[in-house]
Specification:
This protein has 228 residues and is of the alpha+beta class. The chain has three domains: 63 residues; 74 residues, SH3 Domains (SH3 type barrels), CATH 2.30.30.40; 76 residues, Beta-lactamase Inhibitory Protein, Chain:B, domain 1 (2-Layer Sandwich), CATH 3.30.1450. The chain is built from five helices and ten strands, in the order αββββββααααββββ. The strands form three sheets. The chain has a four-stranded antiparallel sheet. It has a four-stranded antiparallel sheet with strand order 7-8-9-10, with no helix packed on it.
Length: 228
Amino acid sequence: MKKLLLSLLTVTFFITTIYAQQDNNTRLNQLKKEKSDLTKQVGQLNAKIKKIDQEIAKLESQANSKDGGISGILTKVSDNGTKLRETPSSTGKEVEDLPAGTEILILKESQGLYLKANHKGKVGWVSYSGINTNAEIDAILMDSKKKQKPEDKAKYNRLAKIYGDDVAKKIMAGLLWNGMSQGMVIESIGRPTNTTKTNTPEGVRETWEYQGRKVYFLNGGLEKWDKN
């Protein structure tokens, strides 16, 4: 009797194990199918999102201009923000302060390292270093370089021989940066309307005044400037 009972228990155990394994396999296959279905749905949703993003970019590009007929390249202001200026120079009058992430329309015109831009109907110039760039924007700069006036080309070539290509490009764009020599500043933004010089414990400090802004030197090197 005991042997019969033991045999029945053993058979019952194996049958239970087999059914449990079958249940596990069924559940596993079910989960794999659910995952596959969800993956397909995610792919379809991503495709729809991409299409919507393209439509949004197109509509924002149109809204960013005075009318839908202005063509250009939609991009965003880089992390440090930038300024929309009346003229293609760091000394140009500020039209608008553009925070990081602001969407602007780059028009197909440039001077030096400045590009013409449109932000909600306001047109001005932004620095190449202040925006997120791409191949289309780079192509605008290259095309503009080909159309440079002879005198600009001569100045660029002269500066490139003295300072190298990278510095020459920045000077031609009217940019300022810490450590510039006074000669470089003159090449970049012109001669000041007035200068003052003071002897201090740190050394000789000079202030150069331009229309609407000042630049400051310490021992002949550019230390800071008004970011008007």
